[in-house]
Amino acid sequence: MAKPHSADGRARSSVQIFIVVGLCCFFYILGAWQRSGFGKGDSIALEITKKSSDCNIRPDLSFDSHHGGEVSKIDEFESKPKVFEPCDAQFIDYTPCQDQRRAMTFPRENMNYRERHCPPEEEKLHCLIPAPKGYVTPFSWPKSRDYVPYANAPYKSLTVEKAIQNWIQYEGNVFRFPGGGTQFPQGADKYIDQLASVIPIKDGTVRTALDTGCGVASWGAYLWSRNVIAMSFAPRDSHEAQVQFALERGVPAVIGVLGTIKLPYPSAAFDMAHCSRCLIPWGANDGMYMMEVDRVLRPGGYWVLSGPPINWKTNYKSWQRPKEDLEEEQRKIEEVAKLLCWEKKSEQSEIAIWQKTVDSESCRSRQEDSRVKFCESADANDVWYKKMEVCITPTPRVSGDLKPFPERLYAIPSRIAGGSVPGVSVESYNDDNEKWKKHVNAYKKINRLLDSGRYRNIMDVNAGLGGFAAAIQSTKLWVMNVVPTIAEKSTLGVIYERGLVGIYHDWCEAFSTYPRTYDLIHSHGLFSLYKDKCNEEDILLEMDRILRPEGAVIFRDEVDILIKVKKLVEGMRWDTKMVDHEDGPLVPEKILIAVKQYWVANVTSAQ
Question: Where does the sequence pass through the membrane (predicted)?
């Protein structure tokens, strides 16, 4: 493996200094190192070390017998950790469950081949995915919205394919994103202004949005300044690296497609859904894709469709498509929208906006159309690998109005007030919020860079009620709240009600993202949850794949589990530090902090 800018020796000595002076110093020095350039922070680090007498993080851990006999007997120092070797450079952008070669073996009908198809156990990689040569820490937000280092995603095809649409431009050693899109070549801001003339974007009523077929996610990138957070998805297809570009820019995105299985989001989650020339055949399959959007759209939410076939009478010549085909396409869309009880609010130029009826049950009771079929599933949130159906999801009953953001961040979610999350009361919800405020305050004392803008893309791998994301909420960052499919409680709907975003996922499989797309990972109780469910080594290798070089992980779990995790990650080129619970050494739950070392692929291995 190539060394980072031939500074590996100096970098290693700096890391040794970090460990000695304590974890708070560790992160402070790391920040200085990154700001000054790779291998150039040694003198700064040494100077800070001399001045860092105020670091008071406990350097030791208590392994007294109150943790149990087995804990005190763990032989972590009696055997060397397993060393994980780097993967070949051909795997730099490996996405295990969206592997291009494997995808081509699946049917193309309804985009099945672009969906998740994970490798069997015998085909899993047990090595570390390398970063490309020249990889650098992405720019901080908001600069990252407009610029991405070329070395991090060295793919120029979109600069040619989408040149006249202002998606992306290559300038020197960076890609520049002018903010354009296929439907808004003059810029996303002006386009969003058009939407805002109909949709209440300014007052916090619309907070969460779903962008289907997002391209490089410029729509979501420019919504951020309006306090709207968009979950964007696009397939891994001929538009190489579009989701990777989105995440390099600091915009929430996953690899995904509307195909044959349900979207990994809860019902009644999003305030707005959007398609801008996303090439999804909305009227096909008896409107199945529109019905899936209806499932994830909350009552009163908006659906935006821009581009063909909207206003086809005016635009069919410029689209170079037969007007008969466009007319039929729009007719089918209008027909399904009526079945769904969506009200068209606007149709201007090439943009149409519908609103989902708040009282859809009353609307449908008045319909005489025999084609209205309601889904029979007892749980509308049971979506993991479940086949999409041609049916309408009944609207869940809610208690009270949804508050505007940011008020809704700590307002009592209707799902909790209405008792639809078993085992979670209003009191326990409030207690959970206070607990996470306390935990995050402790994290900030450990890692002083936590709310500095250093970490933009954050993932909480076992998000619960979203307490961590709410406590760390800032315009400088966003959190992908993952609710494991095996979690005892289905809480993702609550997370969306809070004005946060997230996704369902099973951590026995790879996540739907590119390598090196998250700056910080938070893991609370994940390894306790997955104990005896799948190999913890596989979960840690997946964390390593999606974590950026010099990114950090915060593990919070039982001490015996964390000791095993610590031993494994030390063979993965991670530096670690164990810290006591903020309530003291007698609490069996501990905190393990890890930082992934900087290293890149050996270019000769790609030849």
Answer: 15-33
Compute the C-alpha angle 412/417/420, nearest 5°: 125
DSSP codes, 86-140? BPPGGGTT--GGG-HHHHTTS--GGGGGGS--PPPGGG---SBPPBPTT--PPPP
Q: What is the rounded distance in angstroms from the CA atom of residue 550 to the CA atom of residue 531?
A: 28
Other Cβ atoms within 10 Å of 136 Cβ, number: 18
pLDDT of residue 321: 86
Q: Which two tokens stand for residue 468?
A: 């961590």
Instruction: Give mean pLDDT, residues 319-346.
Output: 93
Instruction: Give me the percent of the chain exceeding a pLDDT of 90.
Output: 70
| Domains of the chain by residue range | 178-366, 407-596
Q: Enter the tokens of residue 211.
A: 């962008």
Cis amide prior to 309 (ω within 30 degrees): yes
Residues facing residue 554 across a β-bridge: 522, 593
Contact (Cβ atoms closer than 8 angstroms) between residue 468 and residue 436? yes
Fold topology of 407-596? Rossmann fold (3.40.50)
Whether omega before 406 lies within 30 degrees of 0, making that bond cis, reads: yes
Cβ–Cβ under 8 Å, residues 566 and 595: no
Neighbours of 40 (CB within 10 A): 15
Question: Where does the pLDDT of residue 80 fall: very low under 50, low under 70, confident under 90, or very high at 90 and above?
Answer: confident
Contact call for residues 421 and 489 (beta carbons, < 8 A)? yes
The pTM (predicted TM-score) of the whole model is 0.87
Q: How many CB atoms lie within 10 A of CB 376?
A: 8
CA-based torsion, 501, 507, 511, 516: positive or negative: positive
Contact 369, 337 (CB under 8 A): no
Contact 511, 547 (CB under 8 A): no
Please determine whether the domains at 178-366 and 407-596 fall in the same fold group of CATH. Answer: yes
Q: What share of the chain is helix, strand, coil (3-state, %, to 5)?
A: 35, 20, 45
| Alpha-carbon gap, residue 484 to 345, rounded angstroms | 37
Reported as a pLDDT band with limits 50, 70 and 90, residue 241 is confident
Q: What tokens were used for 129?
A: 């995915």
The token pair that represents 208 in the structure block: 């969460």
Q: Are 29 and 49 in contact (CB under 8 A)?
A: yes
What pLDDT is attached to residue 60? Answer: 40
What are the residues whose beta carbons fall under 8 Å from the beta carbon of 446, sequence distance 6 or more? 23, 24, 27, 57, 579, 591, 593
Nearest C-alpha neighbor of 389 from the set 110, 182, 150:
110
Element (H, E) at 572: none
Query: Which residues face 520 on adjacent strands?
Result: 458, 552
pLDDT at 607 over 50: no
Alpha carbons 85 and 225: distance in angstroms, whole number:
42
387/358: higher pLDDT: 387
> Three-state DSSP class for 592?
strand
Tell me the pLDDT band of 166, cut-offs 50, 70 and 90. low
pLDDT in tens, 88-122: 999 999 999 999 899 999 999 999 999 999 999 99
- Residue of 258, 263, 231 whose CA lies nearest to 247: 231
Q: Does 218 score more than 60 pLDDT?
A: yes
Tokens of 522: 């938070």
Closest CA to 268 of 376, 405, 392, 116: 392
Superfamily of domain 178-366: Vaccinia Virus protein VP39 (3.40.50.150)
